[in-house]
Amino acid sequence: MEQQNADTPVRSMRIDTGRPHPARMYDWFLGGKDNYPVDEELGRQLVAFAPAIPVMARMNRAFMHRATRWVAGQGVRQFLDIGTGIPTEPNLHQVAQEVAPDARVVYCDNDPIVLAHAEALLHGTAEGAVDYVQADARDTAAILEHARKVLDFDRPVALSLIALLHFLGDDDGAYELVERLKEALAPGSWLIMSHLTPDFHPEEAAQKVRDMYKAGGLTLDLRGRDRFARFFEGLEPAAPGIVAAEEWHPELGEPVAGQEDVHSGAYVAVARKP
């Protein structure tokens, strides 16, 4: 397996334990141990208000598994995953390389604790390649520069943006970020995305969750369907189009324990660049 190290040594990266981070909170929701008291504190507040959140997190991750498996089945052999999060098996490259052992995957995240676990992300097949870049999602130039060392952008790439963009508001350039990434992709590439939405819950509940994230110093922009659809302008959505996470090809994966009485609270879609 071709393996490249992230640009920045782990020892030089400072992990901010004074404020929560979405990747570490997501790890806590999934039952992981790579988080800090500040992440657990906000996580517990959120779960006390909405006990289904851990199940919702697992439903979101299950969508990522199904979508990755489906896109690999369409012949795509290159994946760029931005907003990777802390490794939880199976990781995206394991799902892709199960379908296509020669798949090449580049991960990206901005939390140093993810970098500290990059070694776990870099174990793949002998035929494929896996790499990791430490960068902010908004720094698309740096991400693309690094990704081009592993991926051939003259050929189709699957761009995975899972549970990422609701942490970036319109003023943070969320739409511009996606447009820059889409522009770099060759025809035949795919965009895989999930995004929290207020559409399936009472507005007062959605506002309460926004306020709780804001109190923790985090942005949470819960976009409705029309605003989510804007990310896919110029692309051709695969069936069934924009749907809730649990409604996207459930036959491609295993049910998530506890999901029977829970709504994912997220829109998802997989779309092709013509």
Question: What does this protein structure show overall?
Answer:
α8 (174-184) links the parallel β5 and β6. The chain has ten helices and nine strands. Helices cover 35% and strands 16% of the residues. The model is unreliable at 3-12 (pLDDT under 50). By secondary structure, it is of the alpha/beta class. Pfam families: Methyltransf_19. Keywords: Methyltransferase, Transferase. One of its GO terms (molecular function) is methyltransferase activity.
Sheet of most strands: 9 strands, mixed
User: What is the CATH H-level superfamily?
Assistant: Vaccinia Virus protein VP39
* CATH T-level topology: Rossmann fold
> What's the end-to-end separation, in Å?
31 Å
CATH architecture: 3-Layer(aba) Sandwich
What labels would you give this structure?
single chain; disordered N terminus; Rossmann fold; 10 helices; 274 residues; 35% helix; 16% strand; globular; 9 strands; nine-stranded mixed sheet
What's the layout of helices and strands?
Elements: E1 2-4, H1 22-29, H2 37-49, H3 53-73, E2 78-82, H4 92-99, E3 104-109, H5 112-116, H6 118-121, E4 129-134, H7 140-147, E5 158-162, H8 174-184, E6 190-196, H9 203-215, H10 225-229, E7 236-237, E8 243-244, E9 266-272
Parallel strand pairs: 1-4, 2-3, 2-5, 3-4, 5-6
Antiparallel strand pairs: 6-9, 7-9, 8-9
Helix pairs in contact: 1-2, 3-4
